Amino acid sequence: MHSPEEGAQFQKGEILVTSQTDIAWTPLFPRAGAIVTDVGAPLSHAAIVARELGIPAVVGCGNATMRLQTGDRVLVDGGQGVVMIL
């Protein structure tokens, strides 16, 4: 997903994968099963909102948007900082 406007097709439980988030992405977070971003740190928007909502998140992956495709089955372990394609 490249922009929050594309979120109309984003289904509950899907993993939100994007380069980074800002306040415009916030309405999609409650539908997300997990959040994965290329850019980010513990105090980034994605990390903070995910913690507030209790959603697993791995931020600062570097290349998640290049490696993950729509339809991939993915395991996200926010506690360990691991994103694994199944």
UniProtKB/TrEMBL annotation:
Coiled coil: none annotated. InterPro entries: PEP-util_enz_mobile_dom (IPR008279), PEP_Utilizing_Enz (IPR051549), Phosphohistidine_dom_sf (IPR036637). Gene3D superfamilies: Phosphohistidine domain. It comes from the Bacteria. This is PEP-utilizing enzyme. Residues 10-81 form the PEP-utilising enzyme mobile domain. PANTHER family: PHOSPHOENOLPYRUVATE SYNTHASE-RELATED, PPDK_N DOMAIN-CONTAINING PROTEIN.
